[in-house]
């Protein structure tokens, strides 16, 4: 009994570590960015991993070898996908035009097995409720829809109105869960003394009290303190 438990723990640990290493080298695509080929590879790797962790019909060595081989092939394919247009076309379907010059391309919809109802739904998710407002709509190889509205229906931007705007950059994280991110402080040419002063101005005596602090591109600092363990927070919205 004890030997079986130890064996199961070892198999699961090996499977977990191998999958972690393979996933690390496969890249950072989110689920919404995955193509059918990516999805098929992940399902296969998951199946082999489960077999390595729990499958009694194969030895750990066999399952691990299969997992490493599949992972290696996936990594090589991913590398070739970047380097070779031919491999890219082989593994990914090409984008398909669903609406062109304001007209629905029904042949292309049939080609990718899309219905008008599905196209309408995807347009609504892009805040487009009228086909007449669309100049081009393209179904990307990950299944997402890209929409170019007609120029008369496109939202106005400050440049259209010749209005100058101030630069808006990314917020720089300074404190996360009570830990000061020293490198980020240095990158904006600030130090701990400046940070302590800013916290003191907001009535905060210790960095440990801060859950998050960030500095925006205008030099304004945002601070959110931790909720005390004894305090029960009741939100105005959501479940209470």
From TrEMBL:
Alphabetically ordered keywords of this record: Cell membrane, Membrane, Transmembrane, Transmembrane helix
Transmembrane spans: 6-23, 35-55, 61-82
Annotated InterPro entries: DUF421, UPF0702_alpha/beta_dom_sf
GO cellular component: plasma membrane
All residue ranges annotated as the YetF C-terminal domain in the record: 83-214
Compartments, record wording: Cell membrane
Pfam family, one: DUF421
Protein topology in the membrane: Multi-pass membrane protein
Transmembrane found in the keyword field: yes
Source domain of life: Bacteria
Main location: membrane
Family to which this protein belongs: Belongs to the UPF0702 family.
Protein name: YetF C-terminal domain-containing protein
Organism: Pseudobacteroides cellulosolvens ATCC 35603 = DSM 2933
